[in-house]
Structures are given as structure tokens and as C-alpha cells.
Design goal:
Structural class: alpha+beta
CATH superfamily: SUI1-like domain
Largest sheet: 5 strands, mixed
Order of helices and strands: HEEHEEHE
Number of helices: 3
Distance between the termini: 64 Å
Protein name: Translation initiation factor 1
InterPro entries: SUI1, SUI1_dom_sf, SUI1_euk
Helix content: 25-40%
Shape: globular
Organism: Cryptomeria japonica (Japanese cedar)
Number of domains: 1
GO biological process, one term: regulation of translation
Pfam family, one: SUI1
Length: about 110
């Protein structure tokens, strides 16, 4: 009966590496740039996930001057502070954040259409 003492390997978990990477808190923080459709041709661009050490109001002021659009900073209970801009400014905002050195290109996710 000692032949039954052979150990059987455990089940293979294909997501073990992904779960291990996600467990590191803040290992890969993304800035999400999204577009929300309002009514008709009107749209709203939202920027979420910037680090808390940045002054959102100063970034918003520069974005508004650069792109000639209106915007605001909204406090969301789940997402924290979110920058909202009028119009489809996804590419403009991502280029601005990269050139200003606020975010690296690898850490920006552009969502929409």
C-alpha cells in the first residue's frame, strides 16, 4: 500500500501569475480617459485615476486654456476626483498629460467608441 503515497500534482491555475501581479497594491496605476455621450452631438470627456498629489484644479485650468473648452472637477464617492471636459478631448488630454510629464504613455488607457 505504500505505492499510493505518490503525490499527484495540483491543478494548473492559468491565472496564478495575473493574480500575483494584481495583488501588489498600486503596482500599475492607470489614468483612464473616457468619453460619455450626452445628447445629440454633445459629449463629455472624463479623466480619472490621476495621483492625489497633483492639484486637479491647476491641471484643469491648463487643459481648459489649451483646448478652449469648459470643464470641472467632480468628487465621486467611488472614483475620487474626476476631471470633466466638454467635447471629445481624449487624444488631446492624453498627449497633454504625457508632454507635461504627469503620466507615462504606458499608464494611459483611452476608452470609448
Amino acid at each position: 500500500m505504500s505505492d499510493l503515497d505518490v503525490q499527484i500534482p495540483g491543478a494548473f491555475d492559468p491565472f496564478a501569475e495575473a493574480n500575483a501581479e494584481d495583488s501588489g497594491a498600486g503596482s500599475k496605476e492607470y489614468v483612464h480617459v473616457r468619453i460619455q455621450q450626452r445628447n445629440g452631438r454633445k459629449s463629455l470627456t472624463t479623466v480619472q485615476g490621476l495621483k492625489k498629489e497633483f492639484s486637479y484644479n491647476k491641471i484643469l485650468k491648463d487643459l481648459k486654456k489649451e483646448f478652449c473648452c469648459n470643464g470641472t472637477v467632480v468628487q465621486d464617492p467611488e472614483l475620487g476626483q474626476v476631471i470633466q471636459l466638454q467635447g471629445d478631448q481624449r487624444k488631446n488630454v492624453s498627449n497633454f498629460l504625457i508632454q507635461a510629464g504627469i503620466v507615462k504613455k504606458d499608464n494611459i488607457k483611452i476608452h470609448g467608441f
